[in-house]
Design goal:
The protein has 16 helices and no strands. With 430 residues, it is mainly α. It folds into two domains: 191 residues, no CATH class; 196 residues, Vanadium-containing Chloroperoxidase, domain 2 (Orthogonal Bundle). Helix 1 runs parallel beside helix 11, helix 4 packs parallel to helix 12 and helix 14 packs antiparallel against helix 15.
C-alpha cells in the first residue's frame, strides 16, 4: 500500500510550512481536561476501572508484545509520515491513506475516522490522571489508534505495527512502553464498541419499486441508517421533511432545474464539483482540521478532542442521512432525466437526502465551535459542498437543502455535547 498522494501533500507541506489559522480556543488549565468530567466516549472516565491500575501499566505486557512494539520500522510509508510532528495528525493521515486505499464508501470512511479518533482522545485523556505520573501521550495515542486500525484494516497489519513502533520510538521516554500498553487497552474497548455498532447488519430486502423509486442494484450500505450513533439518539432521531410528491409542482421544478443547470455549467462550477467529488468528503473536512492543528496551538489532548468531535459528528450525520435514503429510496436525477449529462459518476444509492450536504453542515458547526473566527468560512464551505451536487447533476436542490438542515442539527447536537462538561469549549493549548 502506498500513501495516497493527497495525504502526502498535506503532511509534507504542513510539516514544512506550519500553515493554517491559529486556534482561538481558551486553554484548559486543569491537567485532567474535560475527560475527568465525563467527556470520554468509550471510557466511563479517565479513571475507568477497566484500565490497568496506576503503576501497573507494564504488568500486562508480554515478551512478544514488547518485541513487537520495539521493532525497527521498515515500511517506507511510515518513514514518509515520520516528519509529521503532531501525534494525532500522524494517525489521522494514516487512517485517511488506509481508507482511501481500501476504497471505503463515505459512511465507512467516516466510521473509520470516528473510531480511530475516539480511541485516541479517550487514551490521551487518561494522561490527566495524576496518579499515573508522567504518561507519554504519543505512546498512548499509538497504542489506541493502532488497535483500532488493526481491526479496521487487518490486511495492513505490518504497516500499522510499524507506525505504532515508530511513534513509541519517537517519544523515547521511559514511560513509553507502559503508555503504549495502556493505549492498547483503550483501543480494545473501542473495538468492542465497533463490533457491536450494527455495521455488519445485512439488508434483507425487498427493494421497493415504482416510477419515482431508485432502480439501481447492489445499493451501498442500505443498513447504515441503523448504526449506533455517538451524539444523537439514533439515525431516525433527526429527520428531514418527506421528499416532494412525485410529479408535484415542486418535484417537477427540481427536475427541470437539474437539466437547466447541466446545460449551462461554467468552468468554475465544474471545478467546484470536482473539489468536493474527487476525494471522500470526510477526508476533505479532516484535511481542513489538519491544516489548523499544524498551524495552531493545540496540546495533544486538545487536538485529539477536536478530531474526535469532528468525526463523530460526520458519522452521526451519515447515519441520519442513510436512514432517510433507505426510508424513501428516491430516484436519482439521471434515472428521471434520460438526456442528463453529469460531471461525475452518480453514486450507487438513492438521492434523498444528499450525503455531502448533510455531513458538511454537521462538520461546519463543529469546526465553527473550535475556530469561531472562521465560523462563516466553514458554513460557506458546507454550502458550496451542497450546491456542488446540484451543479454536478447528481442531486436535486431539495436533497441538498434538507440534507443541510439535518446536518446542521446533528452538528449542533455534537456541539451541545462538547459544551456540556464545563459549559465552554474545553480545548487545551500547549
Amino acid at each position: 500500500m502506498r500513501l495516497h498522494p493527497a495525504v502526502l501533500l498535506v503532511a509534507l507541506s504542513l510539516a514544512a510550512a506550519g500553515c493554517g489559522a491559529r486556534s482561538t480556543l481558551a486553554p484548559d488549565a486543569a491537567s485532567t481536561s474535560a475527560s475527568s468530567r465525563g467527556d470520554t466516549f468509550v471510557l466511563e472516565s479517565i479513571t475507568d476501572s477497566r484500565l490497568p491500575a496506576p503503576g501497573m501499566e507494564l504488568a500486562g505486557v508480554t515478551d512478544a508484545e514488547r518485541a513487537e512494539i520495539l521493532r525497527t520500522p521498515t515500511s517506507p510509508q511510515v518513514t514518509q509520515l515520520s516528519g509529521v510532528p503532531d501525534a494525532v495528525e500522524f494517525w489521522n493521515l494514516l487512517t485517511e491513506s488506509l481508507a482511501t486505499e481500501a476504497k471505503l464508501p463515505p459512511p465507512l470512511f467516516a466510521r473509520a475516522y470516528a473510531y480511530v479518533h475516539v480511541a485516541i482522545y479517550d487514551a490521551v485523556s487518561v494522561s490527566g490522571d495524576t496518579r499515573r505520573g508522567r504518561v507519554s501521550e504519543r505512546a498512548l495515542a499509538a497504542g489506541a489508534a493502532s488497535q483500532v486500525l488493526l481491526y479496521l484494516f487487518p490486511a495492513s497489519a505490518d504497516l500499522i505495527k510499524d507506525a505504532a513502533a515508530e511513534q513509541v520510538k519517537a517519544d523515547g521516554g521511559p514511560s513509553s512502553l507502559g503508555a503504549w500498553h495502556l493505549g492498547t487497552v483503550v483501543g480494545d474497548l473501542t473495538v468492542r464498541r465497533a463490533q457491536a455498532d450494527g455495521s455488519t447488519a445485512v439488508f434483507g430486502g425487498p427493494q421497493p419499486t415504482g416510477p419515482d423509486i431508485w432502480t439501481g442494484t447492489n445499493p451501498v450500505l442500505p443498513m447504515a441508517g441503523t448504526w449506533k450513533t455517538w451524539c444523537v439518539a439514533s439515525g431516525s432521531s433527526i429527520a428531514p421533511e418527506p421528499p416532494y410528491a412525485y410529479l408535484s409542482e415542486k418535484d417537477l421544478a427540481d427536475v427541470a432545474e437539474v437539466l437547466e443547470v447541466s446545460q449551462n455549467r461554467t468552468p468554475e462550477m465544474i471545478s467546484v464539483v470536482h473539489k468536493w467529488a474527487d476525494f471522500s468528503p470526510p477526508a476533505i473536512w479532516n484535511d481542513m482540521l489538519n491544516a489548523r492543528v499544524q498551524g495552531g496551538d493545540f496540546s495533544t489532548v486538545g487536538a485529539a478532542r477536536a478530531y474526535a468531535y469532528l468525526n463523530v459528528a460526520m458519522e452521526d450525520a451519515f447515519v441520519c442521512c442513510w436512514n432517510t435514503k433507505y426510508q424513501y429510496w428516491v430516484a436519482r436525477p439521471f434515472q428521471r432525466i434520460p438526456e442528463l449529462v453529469t460531471v461525475v459518476v452518480t453514486p450507487n444509492f438513492p438521492t434523498y437526502t444528499s450525503g455531502h450536504s448533510t455531513i458538511s453542515a454537521a462538520a461546519a458547526e463543529v469546526m465553527a465551535q473550535i475556530f469561531p473566527a472562521e465560523a462563516q468560512y466553514f458554513r460557506d464551505q458546507a454550502a458550496e459542498a451542497a450546491i456542488s451536487r446540484l451543479w454536478g447533476g447528481i442531486h436535486f436542490r431539495h436533497d441538498n437543502e434538507q440534507g443541510a438542515i439535518v446536518g446542521q442539527k446533528v452538528g449542533l447536537a455534537t456541539v451541545a455535547r462538547m459544551l456540556k462538561p464545563g459549559g465552554k469549549p474545553l480545548f487545551a493549548s500547549r
